[in-house]
Amino acid sequence: MTRQRCRLRLRTTQPTDAYLLKELNLTHGDIRIFTTPRRIVVSIDSLSPNQPDREDLVKGPPADKAFDKDGKPTQAALGFAKKNNLDPATLEAREIDGGKYVAAVVKQKGRPTPEVLVDALPKLVESIKFEKSMRWNDSGIAFSRPIRWYVALLGDMVIPFEYAGVTSGNISRGLRPYGSPDITIPSADKYFDVIREAGILLDKEERKASIVEQVNQAAALLGGQAIIEEGLLNEVTNLIEMPTAVMGGFNEEFLALPRDVLISVMKKHQRYFPVQFSSLSAADVHGGGKLLPNFIAIRNGDDIHIDTVREGNEHVLGARFADANFFVREDVKLKLEEYRPKLSSLTFHTKLGSMLDKSERIEKLVNELIPVLGLEADQAVFARRAAHLMKADLATQMVTEMTSLQGIIGGEYALRSGEQKDIAIAIGEQYQTVPQSKAGLIIAIADRLDSLVGLFAAGLAPTGAKDPFGLRRAAIGVVQPLIEHGVDFDLADAVKKSAKTQPIEVKEEVQKQILEFITGRLKVVLGDLGYKHDVIESVLAAQSNNPAGTVRAVKQLSAWVGREDWSTILDGFARCVRITRDQKTQFEVSEKQLVEESEKGLYEAVNRLPSAVAGDVDSFLKNIAALIPSITAFFDKVLVMAEDKAVKENRLGLLQKIASLANGIADLSKLEGF
């Protein structure tokens, strides 16, 4: 059968793939997906014009129920034959799935592709689900946004279907700023050319590249450097179809506002790209760089009337900055510490008290953790003061208006209140995934542990995909900084310390659940670092309460697993574990009970081993590698399960001693090949 070159165009909001076409029994070439704010295009090359003819084996009733004792068809067989348009006389029993059944070979002629798609496309659109959806017409159908049109073409043929009160055709629509003019698509293979002529860039990466190029060029014209943050870039890319950069400015007096306030207003409220001086000193770079009184917006359309667009954007931004200026001016009339008592009016959780209660718990926990993390005298002072002030900015007008600035505003107001710079830095870092200062690290960990312990105790652990309090993020925020800083830290002890500060009981079972939850996040982090799952499982089974130590152990074990002699080392150790793991008694080893030379040799080799470093995979496996010749000789020459009970138990005790070398380090039985 010859195959025509054809494409299907369907406006939906979710990618499709080969699965649907396989289900429809349609062969095809490449499938490409393109998305813009107003359209999603599914392009299918070389879609076959027809389904192939098929022969399906249809299983009927069991043979013993399909025929009576005389071999005549029963009602069950007659019904099966009628359903499949068969002559009952042609029915026969076949071996299917280990039993005998009546079966029929049903021939099905392939349907034309347009006919198949007419039925399939409405179901495809219906299958698309969203977290949030809306209803907009009498059809009562919910979708993320109102569906205004479908373009569905096979070659130059329209695939006619209706869904949500909208009928498909060959008419698309152009850019919204131009009044969404109709765009006639003559055929599927002309689609891309026609849409591009209308100024629409379908490819997301092409739009993104165009935005970056235009923003950088505009910033250079302003004598500065654009601040292009990936999240904002993606958001803007997904909001426009035809990007055009618009340069704007604002009153220089607003530069007196905190840098982060200016950037947040531009990014979050207006989706503008800020501009900073391109020639920065080292101090400027460390502090974030001095901003220019300019911004770059991205318009959805061309540069017609661009001056009017610029003026409108400048007016809106000026009003935003004026509001922010008022909030900051009012806030700094009080010192940051004076806002702290106001936290009593902000509820953290009904069972856990106010934000002031939480702040006081964090202070207590920080004091407990300072010696654990080994903070020096000055750092300890900074950490205690930062813990005292860290939540105070939640009561300020600026943070009430822009919650994304919490912590950042606290650091800024701390400086303006005369606090030391290290304290301000720690306050500003508290919401970062990995705070850089030691004081920032300790207050962030204390904050996240308090949330985890308190909310788990209140019965608010995440379930399925629901995590309203962001506890998965909090757990990552405990694990990640400890790993990045390489700090040894006992999570079990820290959870226990936090539990003592809570206003409600935190049972041991709940504490165990919290540690398992954090271990689950640690496992995700290790997987993201590229380590093999069995190596991760091996280490986590023995030591998971120290994230930094766990990462070191996983890294070391990964290196050993990659060695050429690894199978010999693992096999030798595995023999010691397998023969002893079912023993419920830990046997003592007596030198007097050693009979064979090879078991005496193994005993002496074990006693010569240097003490392994706690949790250190390298020292443990170096010891095992040193024992391999003695272990091999032992199993070659010695019968462990000797008839003499005392000799047998002595030998088991010796092997148990070797197996126990892995305790607290790794469970090698989790490894592939054990």
Description:
With 674 residues, the protein is α+β, with helices and mostly antiparallel strands. The two termini are 54 Å apart. Helix 17 (438-457) crosses helix 19 (491-501). The longest helix is centred in the middle third of the chain and has 26 residues, at 306-331. A hairpin with a 6-residue loop joins strand 6 (134-135) and strand 7. The protein is built from 26 helices and 20 strands. Strands 15-17-18-16 form a four-stranded antiparallel beta sheet, with helices on both faces. The chain has a three-stranded antiparallel beta sheet with strand order 3-5-4. Strands 8-12-11 form a three-stranded mixed beta sheet, with helices on one face.
Give the tags.
alpha+beta, 47% helix, 3-stranded antiparallel sheet, disordered N terminus, 4-stranded antiparallel sheet
